[in-house]
């Protein structure tokens, strides 16, 4: 899939977002090494903390369908700034794909790419744990 097609898939998910509290829609499209794409949107909740971000919706869909080998993720918002993943989503992406490319999209459809390493330096991962994973 071209980068533009992946971005378009993330942008299309903006209309699926359930965000009556923040009114900030986010769409994501997660590409696996075999080319499979899983999409996601943010899903909010009246109790607030059960809300889930678009990126983690896509990761949950992918992992639960047997896919963990992520290559790129496009994240779209309608704001002026590029929509970057929150810290929780960065940590969740790190678990499966430390080398993933993160494509952040603004409301004008413009994009800017980052490595996850750039977005989450000095990160905590399983190598810090006193067990073998
Ligand atoms: O990485 C992020 C950051 C925020 N949001 C959502 C959560 C909430 O529904 C709304 C405002 O924070 O944006 C995402 O989907 N992804
Ligand atoms: Zn998030």
List strands and helices in order, with pairings.
Layout: H1 3-12, E1 26-32, E2 37-41, H2 54-64, E3 70-77, H3 87-96, E4 101-105, E5 111-115, H4 116-119
Parallel strand pairs: 3-4
Antiparallel strand pairs: 1-2, 1-3, 4-5
Bound molecules: 2'-deoxyuridine and zinc ion (ZN).
Offer a concise description of the structure:
The chain is an alpha+beta fold and 133 residues long. Helices cover 26% and strands 23% of the residues. It has one domain: Cytidine Deaminase, domain 2, CATH 3.40.140.10.
Please explain how this structure is put together.
With 133 residues, the protein is an alpha+beta fold. It has helices at residues 3-12, 54-64, 87-96, 116-119; strands spanning 26-32, 37-41, 70-77, 101-105, 111-115. It has a single domain, classed as Cytidine Deaminase, domain 2 (3-Layer(aba) Sandwich). It is built from 4 helices and 5 strands. It has a 5-stranded mixed β-sheet, sandwiched between helices. A hairpin with a 5-residue loop joins strand 4 (101-105) and strand 5 (111-115). Zinc ion (ZN) is lined by residues 53, 55, 85-86, 88-89. One of its GO terms (cellular component) is cytosol. InterPro entries: APOBEC/CMP_deaminase_Zn-bd (IPR016192), CMP_dCMP_dom (IPR002125), Cyt/Deoxycyt_deaminase (IPR050202), Cyt_deam_tetra (IPR006262), Cytidine_deaminase-like (IPR016193). Its EC number is 3.5.4.5.
């Amino acid at each position: 899939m071209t980068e533009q097609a992946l971005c378009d898939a993330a942008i299309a998910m903006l209309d699926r977002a359930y965000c009556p509290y923040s009114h900030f829609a986010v769409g994501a499209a997660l590409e696996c090494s075999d080319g499979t794409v899983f999409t996601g949107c943010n899903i909010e909740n009246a109790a607030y903390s059960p809300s889930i971000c678009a990126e983690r919706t896509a990761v949950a869909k992918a992992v639960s369908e047997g896919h963990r080998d992520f290559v790129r993720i496009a994240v779209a918002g309608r704001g002026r700034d590029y929509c970057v993943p929150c810290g929780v989503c960065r940590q969740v992406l790190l678990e499966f794909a430390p080398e993933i490319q993160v494509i952040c999209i603004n409301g004008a459809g413009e994009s800017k790419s980052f490595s996850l390493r750039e977005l989450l330096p000095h990160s905590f991962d399983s190598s810090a744990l006193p067990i073998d994973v």
